[in-house]
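#data-curation
PF: Archiving a pair of folding outputs for the training set. Convention for this channel: one message per protein, sequence first, structure tokens after, nothing in between. First:
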Amino acid sequence: MDERPIGIFDSGLGGLTVMREMMSRLPFENMVYFGDTARIPYGTRSPEIVTKYSMQCVRFLLTQNVKLVVIACNTASSASLEPLRASFDIPIVGVVRPGAAMAVAASVNKRIGIIGTDATIKSKAYNSAITALDDNTHVFEAACPLFVPLVEQGWCDNEIAYLTAVEYLYKLKHEFVDTLVLGCTHYPLLSSVISRVMGKDVTLVNPAIGAALRVESMLVENGVTNFSRKEPSYRFFASDFGQRFRQIGSICLGRDIPDIERVDIEGC
């Protein structure tokens, strides 16, 4: 039995949607979350800067004695997964490959859409992961940069969110995709308007679910599952936080967030 926590990091608070799925799937695992809110967004930055920031995030999580790290950020998963694995002797899970596997399994007509930040779409990470699993699949992508600030404003299901989704998703809708990957941790909170635009016949894939399943299997593979039935410990850290931190974070996590500790991530 290994009671050490699982470490999770994201560029901001959207990664709490990944933690939410992990808490549901792994109800007895202790967890530590770090949101790099002082340097959000990662999605507009170069791969080199994203990797630099991700290295610092992992180094911080290692100070918390974590047993496994989850990159709960599609941009960081796209740019930094392999450099992080090469640099640290700890299991590291991204969200892209589990999400790609879910999409391939869900698609019937082999026409899959991907939405994400500019950096995630430019990286072609999902495209590569999906075609590696099934090279007969056609992948269509669209960057949706305004979705993140909509969620951060709490505008997840209003007319502004709907009209923004109509604009972003027009092309994908007319490519007749039957599966759409929500390639940013914020996007599941917009599922209602996205589904409204795309139609009920399009399956929305939340990579956070696949990541939680992958973490569960990796805990078993590495012999570090926590078999204790004690109440789990959840700790939350951020590089900066303001008045709306708890409000936005609680929306992402689906429950109230307790105390938050500030971290000087530049020093890591």
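PF: Second:
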Amino acid sequence: MRSLTPTIITDATWWNDALRELPMAHILQTWEWGEFKHRTTGWQPTRIAFKQGQDVVAMVSVGTRRIAPFTVMYAPKAPAMPTHDPALIEAVLVALERMARRRGNIWLKIDPDVVWATGLPQSEEERFTAEGRIFTELLQAHRWKSSKDQPQFRNTVTLDLTASEDVLLANMSQTTRRKVRTAEKKDVTIRLGGLADLPILYDLYRTTSERDGFLIRPLDYYRQAWQQFMERGLAQPLIAEHAGTPIAHVILYHFGKTCWYFYGASSNDERNRMPNYLLQWESMRWAKAHGYTTYDMWGAPNKFDESDSMWGVYEFKRGFKGEVRRHIGAWDYAPNLATYWGYTQAVPSILRTLRRIRQ
């Protein structure tokens, strides 16, 4: 097992610059994301760089939160590190376990951006990865448990932006390609958004939430989620318009080699003009032009059938003919298994019983 030196980092520029150089660098591990979660939900970030000699070989931004008398920790899409070296993976896991024990945590949760398999389950395209098997076996050997709470999407759809635009367009399903062209023919135009467009972005997002039945937060939350990332050059809105009126938008987050489609919204008008299809195409073109090699459509079903709540969204995404990536998901390390069981099993059961009694 490797000998690593963990170092707490307090310099935002140093952190992001070093993170960009590592495999699995993710927007949820950036300095800005830690600050955003601290301001909006109370997670206190700690940024740790693991060094071997003078070389940074792994990085983890982990949030800590107190829940009643308990303390929990969560490192979204971490650690960022090479995944082909079992000795390095084990050394990082041991360091994280030591930290969790020292701080008296109920659990420390990580969800590495490690792919378990590509392609649909039990399909001819399904391919399991050596990295997913190795990482999972090491987690199990060190008593980490696959978490019942999966904060991030476990599956997603990605496109390889190293292909030419002609190839990306040709690879789309015939229906999706036709709808991209329909938007162009029906005079939908796409422009880059900026800070002045925040009210437009929020109004369209609120309209979408009312139509599709999901809850959204107040505008101030999205000012922090969108504006501050835009100001730091980590987020870019694209807005679809018809006759000068905004009818749809996407908000892209980008870092390292990846561009993520995080948010999307549309009005109730002009939907027959297919603005969402053209927005995705122009988003891919924007990401490719800015040097990103992967376009991540951020989310796919847990179960790949119509019973899954994300099936409709997946039907839209799969028309662009990206690769389905299924990750190893979130894992918990619990220094005290009895306390962990009580927190994750007994306490929720007691609360459900109390709610039934009060009804």
